[in-house]
Amino acid sequence: MRRHGIRFLLTFLAGAGVAALVGASAADVGRLTRPRYEDLLLFTQVLKLVSRHYVETVEPQRLVRGAVRGLLQVLDPHSSFLGPDALREIQVEIQGEFHGLGIEIAKRKDGSIEVVAPIEGTPAARAGIRARDQIVAICPAEPPEDWTEGCRSSKNLTLFETVKLLRGKKGTTVTIELFREGFDRAQPYTFVCDVVKIVSVSGRMLEPHYAYIRIRAFQERTSRDLKRTLEQLHEEADGRLEGLVLDLRNNPGGLLDQAVWVADAWLTDGLVVYTHGHVEAQRKEFRAHAGDTEPRYPIAVLVNEGTASSSEIVAGALKDQHRALLVGTKTFGKGSVQTVYPLEGGRGLRLTTAHYYTPSGRSIQEVGIAPDIVVEASPTSRAAEDPTQSPEAGQVAMRDVQLDRALEVLKSGTTFERLKQGPVARARAALPGGR
Questions:
Q1: Helix (H), strand (E) at residue 88
Q2: What is the H or E stretch that residue 246 is in?
Q3: Contact (CB, 8 A) for 154 and 113
Q4: List 334, 336, 372, 400, catalytic entry
Q5: What is the pLDDT of residue 92?
Q6: How far is 408 from 402, CA to CA, in rounded Å?
Q7: Under 8 Å between Cβ of 386 and 121
Q8: pLDDT band at residue 273, thresholds of 50, 70 and 90?
Q9: Is 153 a catalytic residue?
Q10: pTM for the whole thing?
Q11: Phi and psi of 245, rounded to 5°?
């Protein structure tokens, strides 16, 4: 049965290559048939040799899935094959509650795992995990059955395998070896997993007529939560909101449509973001609309190296449309679009299909967005403390220098207007007579 199954699989794969050319023009067939056939022939030859001569019997499904994973790994760190569990994980993240450490991660081109941002109020944030930290190895309390070692290098794990190992029921432990700029070598961190609940939007008044809103991630309910929070803040300001700090620090991103809606809340028209991909369907423009737009009060957006993906879309749109000033440090630079395609058996394919571009045509991918006003975080507050919460008993309140500077800019109308005008206008304004 197993040998017959392999023979059928080889025939199917070879036939699929020919079927892919059905309907192509004569010129296309002449140009594509030979290299496609030769590549498929190479693959089937290797598969046949493995099935016949490998030291152990290998199930055909395992070989094919391994080939699919290898195919995707040569593309980029974000494209991947999703088994049923991985597909469910994506839905869980969108809903905003899961068990684990509470960190958003990405796979770098060199194969290592990098922290995009810790999630506030989680074991990772409390332990001081930072954006750009590198997870060198993972040492679960109960290693998978196929492991022969207690710890495994992150370079030998897919992104989903890493996420799965960092997730665990409340009370279970996991140790990671982490490297950070300034470390001589990787350091071990042991965590106790907990229930991670992401509160998408929160807000408060900083002082009379100046408000603060924190968006932690872009989930299904973000737009509704933001609308409700803004209504509450307008009420507390007696209808006279004179400035807003929008905090996108350590926001790893999320749903594109929610990011567009958030930016649209402060824009009346023009581009929010556009995408460009290989196929026409992935070349889209997302524009702002005049309805339900907030009053035109000054906005300062807080960003840092943990501001990524959808949060960079919001920051880039408000910056390019001269609607807000960015305060903090350069953003992460995750500007690629992943589309999830369903496959048979409850599986899926996550494929990078486009790149994001800000309204001015600037690519975010691996570049990030530079703030208008650079303000480094103070060393004592780099653990992603939540400015909307009071310090716990026994803790010393820490000053958030980036938030302080953002509020200062909002209250300085002259500074805010000059910075919005751009470098040329600011240079002219500095000349005698303002010329």
A1: helix 84-95
A2: strand 243-247
A3: yes
A4: 334
A5: 64
A6: 10
A7: yes
A8: very high
A9: no
A10: 0.68
A11: -100, 120
pLDDT digits (tens, 9 = 90+) for 383-417: 334 443 433 333 444 689 999 999 999 998 766 66
Tell me which of 133, 247, 264, 320 is the catalytic residue.
Answer: 320
Amino acid letter, residue 182:
G
Residue 238 a catalytic site member? no
The DSSP string of 301-333 is: EEE-TT--THHHHHHHHHHHTTS-EEEES----
Environment class of residue 299 by beta-carbon count within 10 Å: exposed (0-12), middle (13-18) or buried (19+)? buried
Give the torsion sign (CA, 405, 406, 409, 410): negative
Q: Is the dihedral of CA 35, 37, 43, 46 positive or negative?
A: negative
DSSP state of 72: H
State yes or no: is 28 an active-site residue: no
23: amino acid identity, one letter = G
> Which one of 79, 309, 311, 336 is the catalytic residue?
309
The pLDDT assigned to 386 comes to 44
String of DSSP letters for 162-191:
HHHHH---TT-EEEEEEE-TT-SS-EEEEE
Q: Are 174 and 138 within 8 A, CB to CB?
A: yes
